[in-house]
């Protein structure tokens, strides 16, 4: 496929679809790598003699650094070439995976996981941005994004299952070696199937902006995630405040640079702004799902693997919804499809807000599936709207902003809804008077402490304590999922109004067939997709540098 702007919205061929498969595999691997470690943690902790603090860093450092470097790597990919950066990242990811698999100490594993996070940040925005280059046709882009999103979500769900299966036969380091064949395929097939693409007006990477970006994102995400675990403690609030203050300086610097790391002009596009807000707050609404996972384990008494298996159907429902959303958007406005999906999601959350300890798993599973089905259009169509509302040479930065916003949204949702749940739990639990003071204090801190305290106390008294804790936690989960339902309904209204101007993708395709040549047709399709002319900050003719249009 020709990647020059004169090609207009040409349709992708077999080579581009094969390239999609190459991009989808590492995407699945990156999301799988976020969750695969949960079941391996007890094994590696015992072998490496990891402390509780080291265990937290082993699990968290990967996600922290991915979030921290997304903006940097998205901008860098636009400057040096998205394929080039992605292949460098794949090579680094392979080396870091081997180092993680054969780590001989907790410190070595933490460093390896940190390198995996940095390498992963080079891969995610590049794979996402290349989709916009490879599939300029609106219908095909919708399908490609749906496949990409499905792989990302599938990896998150498969992580615990894959980890469990591998740990039954191999040592804990084997979970990291999954990366080697996938990255090898990307390194071999990438240069053959993927086009190169960079911003022709790009300058040099501003290192001061990189430092400010990291000093903004890392403390902010760290503070949010730790608030969810430990509550509103001063040091975590301070971390968030530091991130916000540094963020102000970061934004000011971007406004003064000729080639900023983060092009703030992207936020001038109303479709970009609206889709980003919906996706960020939609991610926040999903923050109550972690309480549902805890409910399955602490109230229903499931093992982590059993809980993971019960969550698989909802993941499958999300994937099916993601794949169906672009088809529906060919006939109906994407904003209205997203709004309908968020309304369905609210129904699922409302069902979960009615669950109690005696509720059967059929009802819980139905609520999870209904909520998951509604979330699909937001992920698939929201991403597509972000892509099509900015100039092609800025899709790398746009994808990085989208993914960083998603990280913020989920972390914010977990922190806020987790705090809501913790407050409700603390107000609802009634500890029997006979329980020793230390055990009672542990039980009041959270359901995990209550489970441990009940085992320590034992007997009838322990059973009474556990019952009280389970009832309090169920009420807490009900409150959090009820709040998620309210937020999802509010977002449905926002999506219908703020994105209602974007026409169905079928109309964009019709505009793409207008007379006047392929370049004009491409402009018409882009304008139709975004809902009004003039929203792009750069003309179509200044879109791309065909660094290697032939592959």
From TrEMBL:
<keyword id="KW-0812">Transmembrane</keyword>
<feature type="transmembrane region" description="Helical">
    <location>
        <begin position="480"/>
        <end position="499"/>
    </location>
</feature>
<dbReference type="InterPro" id="IPR011701">
    <property type="entry name" value="MFS"/>
</dbReference>
<feature type="transmembrane region" description="Helical">
    <location>
        <begin position="408"/>
        <end position="426"/>
    </location>
</feature>
<feature type="transmembrane region" description="Helical">
    <location>
        <begin position="110"/>
        <end position="131"/>
    </location>
</feature>
<dbReference type="InterPro" id="IPR020846">
    <property type="entry name" value="MFS_dom"/>
</dbReference>
<feature type="transmembrane region" description="Helical">
    <location>
        <begin position="205"/>
        <end position="222"/>
    </location>
</feature>
<feature type="transmembrane region" description="Helical">
    <location>
        <begin position="272"/>
        <end position="296"/>
    </location>
</feature>
<feature type="transmembrane region" description="Helical">
    <location>
        <begin position="336"/>
        <end position="355"/>
    </location>
</feature>
<keyword id="KW-0813">Transport</keyword>
<protein>
    <submittedName>
        <fullName>MFS transporter</fullName>
    </submittedName>
</protein>
<feature type="transmembrane region" description="Helical">
    <location>
        <begin position="61"/>
        <end position="80"/>
    </location>
</feature>
<feature type="transmembrane region" description="Helical">
    <location>
        <begin position="20"/>
        <end position="41"/>
    </location>
</feature>
<feature type="domain" description="Major facilitator superfamily (MFS) profile">
    <location>
        <begin position="19"/>
        <end position="507"/>
    </location>
</feature>
<feature type="region of interest" description="Disordered">
    <location>
        <begin position="506"/>
        <end position="551"/>
    </location>
</feature>
<keyword id="KW-1003">Cell membrane</keyword>
<dbReference type="InterPro" id="IPR001958">
    <property type="entry name" value="Tet-R_TetA/multi-R_MdtG-like"/>
</dbReference>
<feature type="transmembrane region" description="Helical">
    <location>
        <begin position="85"/>
        <end position="104"/>
    </location>
</feature>
<feature type="transmembrane region" description="Helical">
    <location>
        <begin position="361"/>
        <end position="387"/>
    </location>
</feature>
<dbReference type="InterPro" id="IPR036259">
    <property type="entry name" value="MFS_trans_sf"/>
</dbReference>
<feature type="transmembrane region" description="Helical">
    <location>
        <begin position="143"/>
        <end position="164"/>
    </location>
</feature>
<dbReference type="Pfam" id="PF07690">
    <property type="entry name" value="MFS_1"/>
</dbReference>
<keyword id="KW-0472">Membrane</keyword>
<keyword id="KW-1133">Transmembrane helix</keyword>
<feature type="transmembrane region" description="Helical">
    <location>
        <begin position="234"/>
        <end position="251"/>
    </location>
</feature>
<feature type="transmembrane region" description="Helical">
    <location>
        <begin position="308"/>
        <end position="329"/>
    </location>
</feature>
<feature type="transmembrane region" description="Helical">
    <location>
        <begin position="170"/>
        <end position="193"/>
    </location>
</feature>
């Amino acid at each position: 496929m020709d990647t020059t702007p004169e090609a207009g919205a040409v349709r992708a061929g077999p080579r581009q679809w094969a390239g999609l498969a190459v991009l989808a595999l590492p995407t699945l691997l990156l999301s799988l790598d976020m969750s695969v470690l949960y079941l391996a943690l007890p094994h590696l902790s015992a072998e490496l003699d990891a402390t509780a603090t080291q265990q937290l860093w082993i699990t968290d450092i990967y996600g922290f650094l991915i979030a921290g470097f997304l903006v940097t790597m998205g901008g860098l990919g636009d400057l040096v070439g998205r394929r080039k950066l992605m292949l460098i990242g794949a090579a680094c990811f392979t080396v870091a995976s081997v180092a993680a698999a054969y780590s001989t100490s907790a410190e070595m594993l933490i460093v390896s996981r940190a390198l995996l996070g940095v390498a992963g940040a080079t891969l995610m925005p590049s794979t996402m941005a290349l989709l916009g280059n490879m599939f300029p046709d609106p219908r095909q882009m919708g399908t490609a994004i749906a496949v990409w999103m499905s792989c990302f979500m599938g990896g998150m769900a498969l992580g615990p299952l894959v980890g469990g299966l591998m740990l039954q036969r191999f040592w804990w380091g084997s979970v990291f070696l999954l990366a080697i064949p996938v990255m090898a395929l990307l390194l071999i097939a990438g240069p053959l199937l993927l086009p190169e693409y960079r911003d022709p007006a790009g300058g040099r990477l501003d290192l001061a902006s990189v430092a400010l970006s990291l000093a903004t994102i890392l403390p902010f995400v760290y503070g949010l995630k730790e608030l969810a675990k430990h509550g509103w403690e001063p040091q975590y609030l301070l971390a968030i405040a530091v991130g916000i203050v540094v963020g102000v300086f970061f934004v000011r610097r971007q406004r003064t640079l000729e080639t900023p790391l983060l092009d703030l002009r992207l936020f001038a596009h109303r479709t970009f702004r609206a889709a980003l807000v919906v996706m960020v707050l939609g991610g926040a609404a999903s923050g109550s799902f972690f309480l549902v996972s805890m409910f399955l384990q602490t109230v229903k008494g499931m093992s982590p693997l059993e809980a993971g298996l019960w969550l698989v159907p909802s993941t499958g429902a999300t994937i099916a919804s993601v794949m169906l959303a672009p088809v529906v958007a060919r006939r109906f406005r994407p904003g209205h499809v997203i709004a309908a999906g968020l309304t369905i999601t609210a129904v699922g959350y409302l069902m979960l807000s009615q669950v109690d300890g005696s509720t059967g798993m059929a009802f819980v599973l139905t609520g999870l599936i209904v909520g998951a089905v509604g979330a699909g259009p937001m992920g698939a169509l929201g991403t597509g709207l972000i892509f099509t509302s900015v100039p092609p040479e800025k899709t790398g930065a746009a994808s990085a902003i989208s993914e960083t916003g998603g990280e913020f949204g989920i972390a914010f949702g977990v922190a806020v809804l987790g705090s809501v749940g913790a407050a409700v739990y603390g107000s609802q639990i009634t500890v029997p008077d006979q329980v020793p003071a230390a055990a009672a204090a542990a039980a009041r801190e959270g359901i995990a402490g209550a489970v441990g305290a009940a085992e320590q106390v034992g007997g009838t008294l322990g059973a009474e304590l556990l019952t009280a804790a389970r009832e309090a936690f169920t009420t807490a989960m009900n409150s959090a999922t009820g709040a998620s339902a309210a937020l999802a309904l509010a977002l449905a209204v926002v999506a219908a109004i703020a994105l209602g101007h974007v026409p169905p993708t079928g109309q964009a395709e019709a505009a793409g067939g207008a007379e006047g040549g392929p370049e004009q047709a491409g402009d018409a399709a882009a304008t139709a997709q975004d809902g009004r002319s003039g929203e792009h900050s750069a003309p179509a003719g200044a879109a791309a540098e065909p660094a290697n249009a032939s592959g």
